[in-house]
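Quick look at the format.
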Amino acid sequence: MLINNPRFCMQKVMVEMTFGDLDKQVLSKLMRKQRAQLSKLLQQGIVANYSIAFDETKIWIVFNSAYNTFEIMEMVTEFPLSNYADTFVQDLCFSEQSSFLTEETSLN
């Protein structure tokens, strides 16, 4: 079966962070810092993509395959919200997204 064959998988890693009963004001303040840090990692190519739940109680982060789980967890511990999160790490075989929304528009 192709999907379970590592040669055919992208081998990315998804980190899921869930925040419990953290005060909403504290959560919002730290979430702004968290988003800024994630955006930097996204620009550097370390993170492939990330999503935040509407109520800001959960974040899903997909890391590129160049990093092993240990390196990823070291990065995660540096996140502003890491001390308040239950963190789950999962190896992925595929993580697809449309490039339609990420393409730059030419004004020429």
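Next, a different chain entirely:
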Amino acid sequence: MVDTGPHADDLLNHRLATLNNAARAIGPRALEILVSIAERLERGAKQYGGDFDDKPRAWLSEAIEENLDGLVYLTMAIKQCQEEAAADRARQRAATRDKYLLGDSAHITEMGV
């Protein structure tokens, strides 16, 4: 629950100072992660409104569903990277083969001779 009492500003300032200190202590990549999380929370607050304790939710079930979705996305990203790497290797093999088979004639052809 969000504190709205007389010390709410003190608590908010303390939490902001903690975030500021953490941001200064961690590396740039970790800071990017922290910023991404903050931006995601901001988007969620704008889209769904309020804070996490505004309405009851099945947090564990939602976490499982979200993680399963994430596994699908990661698997597809890995497959895409593997396919792109295989295509790059095939192009490199073809270029090497062509260079080997054509030898200097490829260079001569490029010169228009």
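The helical segments are 8-25, 28-48, 59-102, 105-110.

See the schema section for token definitions.
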